[in-house]
Design a protein that fits this description.
This protein has six helices and no strands. It has 109 residues and is mainly alpha-helical. The termini are far apart. About 6% of the residues have low confidence.
């Protein structure tokens, strides 16, 4: 819990405002290490679901919904690269976010 709060504080910009997808950034920083292969991403989201509080899961779902609504795939790609060392194409970003939503909503990814 303390680690999560510290990471969220670090994700604030210089003016003190949160970045648009701070919970997604937290997931990427906390769970996506360099040793993780792309095919393990769904497993990481399952770990997130098992370890994080319901409130945090719901916030991440809201961010995913905003990503899809805004079709903000370039920003998703940029954040995946910056915070999770992931080099996704736009199509890969769409697939991963769709899979993550399914996992968080208890559907098969």
């Amino acid at each position: 819990m303390v680690l999560k709060l510290l990471l969220l504080i670090l994700l604030r910009n210089k003016k003190g405002r949160e970045f648009m997808y701070s919970t997604f950034q937290y997931f990427l920083r906390a769970y996506c290490t360099l040793s993780i292969y792309e095919e393990e991403m769904a497993h990481l989201m399952q770990q997130f679901k098992e370890q994080e509080e319901q409130e945090t899961q719901e916030k991440l779902l809201q961010e995913f919904a905003q990503m899809q609504k805004r079709e903000d795939w370039k920003k998703v790609r940029k954040e995946a690269e910056q915070y999770g060392n992931r080099m996704w194409t736009i199509e890969e970003a769409k697939v991963h976010i769709g899979n993550f939503i399914s996992i968080l909503q208890n559907k098969k990814a």
